[in-house]
Design goal:
This protein has six helices and no strands. It has 147 residues and is mostly helical. The protein is extended.
Amino acid sequence: MTVKEADDRITELDDLIFKADTGQISVTWQQYLSLKSEVQILMDVLAKSLASTGKHTYEEAYAAREHVRAMNLLPAILQRHCELNPETAQKEDPLLIKAFHSGPNGDDIDNEAYEKFLLQFSYLFANAPQPPVEKKPNLIQRLLGRK
């Protein structure tokens, strides 16, 4: 697998994970874990491959790709929000402006404002896959020693 193929596959998997997280596609908990696991494996492979060139450390390469993943997530969240709430698509959000245009020159990121901005989209993830609930035996089953 080439670095480009690994990078492209990470992007594909992130898209599937986002769609699962937002309830756009239905996956089992095992399928969800498999997607997450494959991303982690590919992130590791990608970082090791880039580190082997000697231009970056493993940590730098991993962090750089993780940053790209985070930057790809924001437009996906905003697009999904606008799909569900088209009336908000043209509104200016003061929290978004504060988050991305802070500092003396207006080119710094205000992490606190950014976190608050993202919190308003938590509703999108209400249908994210959850681990299966372990069924506990009821009182009668426990008394009879059955599961």
